[in-house]
């Protein structure tokens, strides 16, 4: 009986458990359309939340500290802002609108093949203009490079007047 137990123990110890590679889901035209995505760490969600909070604090240096030197921002109106210094100038004007950003959802994700890390997130942006308080919904696709924001693409939707 001891021989059978010993033999069974050897057989079990020698069996390799298969390691399942992440399959992912989704589609991206690069990688011949074979790129798939899986969830990334919520550390990226935390970085993004801190970046938004720096906007609410109107702390330009803190906002820029979360970005790469060559950051690219694609704004909803089609404007492209390239680099930290250009972003600094844009923030000086933007902060005169007394913006408040409140994130309501986010999902960090990473490419299975190319390992690029992105986050898609939604937030409510409230600003004050000559016409009074304005509110819009912002959707953001943002890429991370070495744990800093390197590409930020904004999309907007006006909020219905009943929700302002």
Your description of this structure?
The protein is an alpha+beta fold and 164 residues long. The chain has helices spanning 2-14, 43-56, 60-65, 84-94; strands at 37-39, 67-74, 80-82, 100-111, 117-129, 132-145, 148-158. The mean pLDDT is 87. The protein is elongated, with a radius of gyration of 23 Å. The chain has a single domain (41-159), classed as Roll (Nuclear Transport Factor 2, Chain: A), CATH 3.10.450.50. Strands 1-4-5-6-7-2-3 form a 7-stranded mixed sheet.
Question: What is this entry, summarized?
Answer:
With 164 residues, the protein is of the alpha+beta class.
Itemize the secondary structure elements and their pairings:
Blueprint: H1 2-14, E1 37-39, H2 43-56, H3 60-65, E2 67-74, E3 80-82, H4 84-94, E4 100-111, E5 117-129, E6 132-145, E7 148-158
Parallel strand pairs: 2-7
Antiparallel strand pairs: 1-4, 2-3, 4-5, 5-6, 6-7
